Amino acid sequence: MKKEQNILMVDDHPENLIALEAILDDMDCNLLKAHSGNEALALLLKHDIALVLLDVQMPGMDGFEVAELMRKSSKTKMVPIIFVTAISKEAKYVARGYGVGAIDYMFKPLNPEILQHKARFFLDLDLQKRRLEEKLRKSHESKEAFLRAMGEGDAPPEEQG
User: Fold this and answer.
1) Would you kindly state where each structural domain of the chain is located, as residue ranges?
2) CATH assignment, 6-151
3) Eight-class DSSP state of 68
4) Tell me: the pLDDT tens digits for 57-110?
5) Which whole-number Å values give the CA distances from 75 to 44, 46, 103, in the listed order?
6) How far is the CA of 62 from the CAs of 24, 65, 157, in angstroms?
């Protein structure tokens, strides 16, 4: 059975992606990997993503720039971002991370149990969102069917003889 939810892991160091994958391997979701900001943005446009784990310091486009671009797109503006970093622990970097839309900031070395709990929370939240969207879609379909049925019924009283 194909898993429906996706977590996007973004880091320019393959060993960090392997470590994230090892921590999240038991999650019931797809783990997508990106080695750059551009690759991450391409995957975000192609897939529905429940959570992004985003490295701050990457060559070319850094994590802050990726987050800023995500927040400008209607498809990705509400996707939760957790910044994962080993270096940018200074308050100004943390503040900038939250300023560009991060919901959390985790420092390496990561505590696997905490990351798993956070990931599960966002997967659950994404599942609730999907269920609400499906209920809303069905509600709209029911309303439209009802209105069609009413319009296709008897002619208005003034037209009846």
Assistant:
1) 6-151
2) 3.40.50.2300
3) H
4) 999 999 999 999 999 999 999 999 999 988 767 888 889 999 999 999 999 899
5) 8, 10, 17
6) 23, 5, 67
